Amino acid sequence: MNTQTNNMSQKHQDGMAARKKWRKELRVEDTTVKQFNTITNGVFVKSADIILDNSAKCKTVLKVIPTDKKQWKAEREAIYLFTRNGRVMKIGGTRTGMHKRWGSYKCGHCVPERKMNNGEQYPGKMSVTNAHLYHTIEDDLLKGNHWEFWTWWLPTVKVTVDIMGSQCVVVAQTYHAYESRCIEIFRKESGDIPQLCDNADPNYR
Length: 205
Prior knowledge:
205 residues; alpha+beta
């Protein structure tokens, strides 16, 4: 057992097989969050640190330390960046706010290589995307790297639509378009999309 393993909490040691299966190998991105934020007119602000959760009280191995707990829990549309050592690794979007989006990512913990409280393996019904991201970040934090969330809280857009003869004001879902534009801006600046990102919607390039 190496020094790194000796310094791990028990639950991180128990997750070695899961990390081996689900982590992705990372390369150093060229584009820093400072550079990307300059290109996007400074709309992103740091919203949380992502750190290891060494507590024995819960099974999950990651947690966040928000810069503003009230804003973090606000249910509103947002675009977010995952950053590693100050460099942009992923661009994502959410309709329901950062607290709920992070909760979804934490479901990546529930892979068959990990066990539930009853000692049985998880059934493996989690999102594959969430599983890869969750274990990649855990593995990288254990190696001493630093991860953060940067967030752009989007304006609320209301539109009036005719619903069966009545004029109704509804809140439009816009984050998908913002997310795709941000990914495309990143692509034009760096030559590729962030390595942990999906492709941008071609309708918003």
